[in-house]
Amino acid sequence: MPVTVTEVVPSGEALWLAASGVVARRSPDQSLSEVVRLRHLRTQRLPVHVVEAVGDRVVFRSEDVRAGDLLVLDPGALPSDRAVVPTGGVDEERLVRLTIEAGIAAVVREDLEESARFLSPDYRDSLKLTKAVMARVIKRVYREFGSLDVDLAESPHLEIAGDEAMVHAKLRVRAVYRGRENFLLGGDDAPNAVLLLLNRSPEGWRVSRIEGLRPLGFEDGFLRLLAAQVGLSLTKAEEQERQRACMPCRQRMAERFGPRP
Q: At CA 154, angle to CA 148 and CA 157, rounded to 5?
C-alpha cells in the first residue's frame, strides 16, 4: 500500500512536532488520538495526546515516539502491521536503508514470509539461485539454527542509479546450533563482505541479487552446493563436488559449534 510519510522532531520532553495530518483523531476532544509510525516498512499505530495544534503543525505527547521516526500522513483507519510502500516524504537512499533494516529484522525474528517479502520475484545471482531456492535455503537456516544475531560492521555504502541500487555491506551473523553459539557468517576480526543489488518496483525496493555470502567461511560457491539440499539442480560435476565438500563442512560445523552429540 503506498503512503506518504513525514519525519517527527522533538519539541520537549516526550513532546513531538509534526505535520497535523499525522494525527488520526478517535474522539472530538482529541483525548483519544493516534499516529501511525513506520516500523520495518510496516505500520504501527501508537496512542498520543495532542497538546497543541497551530495551522498545519501539531504538538503531541508520546513516550513511544523517537526522534527521526517516520509517521504516515493522513493514516485514517490504516491498521497496524500493514506492509506499506512510502512514495513521498522520504528520499530513495533512506528507503533503501529502511529496506535493509527491515530485512535484517525479519532474519532476526526468523520470519520466513517477511524475509521472502524483500526478495525480488526476479532474484537470480551468479550461483543461479532463484527467489524460490533462496527462500528454501532461508527456511532451512531457520530450522537448523536459532537465536540469529546480525551485526553490521559499518554503515553500508550505497550507490543508487534510477531504479537500481548497489549496497556494499560487511556483516557478521551469530547463531546457536545444537545449544552452542558461534559465527555462521564472518567473525570478530573478519566480517563477511557482501554485495546486494536492489531494484525498485511498485512494491518498493527488493533484493534482486546477493553476492559474496560465505557460510562458515567457505567460498561463496559452497552456498550453491548447500542449496542442492533444498532442491537446486546440480550438474554431475557439481554433485561430485558436493560429496567431496560434505566432510569439510561437517568438520567446520564441529569446529564452530561442537561435534554432534
A: 110
- Residue 24 predicted with pLDDT over 90: no
pLDDT band, residue 247 (cuts 50/70/90): low
Phi and psi dihedrals of 234, rounded to 5? -120, 155
Decide: 51 and 61 in contact? Cβ < 8 Å: yes
d(CA 106, CA 116) in angstroms, rounded, equals 9
- Of 18, 105, 108, 3, which is closest to residue 60 (Cα–Cα)? 18
83 touches 114 (CB < 8 A)? no
Separation of alpha carbons 50 and 20, rounded Å: 10
How far apart, in whole angstroms, are the C-alpha atoms of residue 184 and residue 214?
Answer: 9
Q: What is the pTM of this model?
A: 0.88
- Say if residue 130's pLDDT is above 80: yes
Interval 194-224: pLDDT, tens: 999 999 999 999 999 999 999 888 777 777 7
For the chain, domains (ranges, CATH) are 2-88 (2.40.420.20), 109-246 (3.10.450.50)
| pLDDT, tens digit, 9 for 90 and up, residues 38-47 | 999 999 999 9
CA 244 vs. chain centroid, Å, equals 34
Helix (H, G, I), strand (E, B) or coil at 23: coil
CA proximity to 153, closest of 170, 139, 168: 170
The 8 Å CB, 24+ separation contacts for 210-215 are 210/125, 210/134, 211/125, 211/126, 213/185, 214/185, 215/184, 215/185
